[in-house]
Design a protein that fits this description.
Number of strands: 10
CATH topology of the largest domain: Jelly Rolls
Largest sheet: 6 strands, antiparallel
Shape: globular
Distance between the termini: 24 Å
CATH class of the largest domain: Mainly Beta
Radius of gyration: 19 Å
Number of helices: 10
Oligomer: single chain
Strand order of the largest sheet: 1-2-9-4-7-10
Strand content: 15-25%
């Protein structure tokens, strides 16, 4: 039986334009891909080839071709090839706010383990994990997101498609999110956020993490990093992009970039969009 053609050996990442609080990528890595990092989105993935290995919640996970990955917001993880052959995968990053819009104030579903064979979750992931150049229509994306949210809720203790309401102030957390999104390019004081939401800072911090999976400051930092990546792809220097995105300086930005994405901004610029021609 003839062997399949060898996969490309140079690292690359293809990225679709972010839309509606989602981002899709397809990537190939040989060896180590990402250092330990965490982001404020769900990371829903599918291994396409090779063995995709990562450390997650105090253990090593090995995802084989066809497996579905579900990484919870703000959970540290890394990424590397499990064998010498390298690995190829697709990933979609889903803001918890989209899941909250569907579940309406429930605690975010948390799936242990990072890898699942749940058929409902796999089907929803299949609809979301199309090629980065494929057109995903708004209604198609909305249907897939609803399917994913309900499948995650059912797999993590929900009854049918409904879960018990969480104990917290969802509306205050939502006001905080909107305020932070509108003011991400500057420093936001705690008393300012309290005034905008009508909630004391400690209760608000608890509520925000319950409903959006991260802290208010991490959410603010992620919005700055989103802006930064757009500026870098538009051709700005690292220093200018860091300043325009709201970071204190380039060093401040680089520390947060590495902690969030597992690679430096310079390395990210090297691999982004460099997939071989088909």
């Amino acid at each position: 039986m003839p062997r399949p053609p060898a996969l490309p050996r140079s690292d690359w990442v293809l990225r679709s334009p972010p839309s509606a609080s989602m981002e899709r990528i397809e990537a190939w890595f040989q060896g180590n891909a990402y250092a330990m990092h965490r982001h404020d989105t769900y990371a829903i993935g599918r291994t396409l080839a090779g063995v995709q290995s990562f450390h997650y919640r105090r253990g090593r996970r090995d995802s084989l071709a066809g497996s579905t990955l579900v990484l919870h917001p703000d959970e540290a993880h890394d990424g590397q090839a499990g064998t010498d052959e390298g690995f190829r995968y697709r990933m979609v990053y889903v803001e918890p706010a989209l899941i909250q819009d569907i579940l309406g104030g429930s605690a975010l579903p948390f799936l242990e383990g990072g890898i699942t064979n749940d058929p409902a979750i796999s089907a929803a992931a299949e609809a979301l994990l199309q090629g980065v150049h494929d057109v995903v229509e708004p209604l198609e994306q909305g249907d897939a997101l609803a399917q994913l949210a309900h499948a995650l809720a059912a797999a993590t203790g929900g009854v049918g498609t409904r879960r018990a309401k969480a104990k917290g102030d969802y509306q205050a957390a939502r006001r905080a999110r909107d305020y932070l999104q509108a003011h991400a390019n500057r420093v936001v004081a705690l008393d300012e956020l309290e005034a905008a939401t009508g909630r004391d800072r400690w209760s608000l911090s608890h509520d925000f993490r319950m409903f959006y999976g991260t802290s208010p400051y991490r959410y603010l930092t992620m919005r700055r990093l989103d802006a930064l990546r757009r500026l870098l792809l538009a051709g700005l220097s690292l220093a200018d992009a860091a300043q325009d995105a709201g970071f204190a300086d380039q060093s401040h930005m680089t520390r947060h970039f590495l902690k969030t994405f597992g690679i430096t901004p310079g390395r990210w610029l090297q691999v982004i969009g460099h997939a071989p021609r088909r």
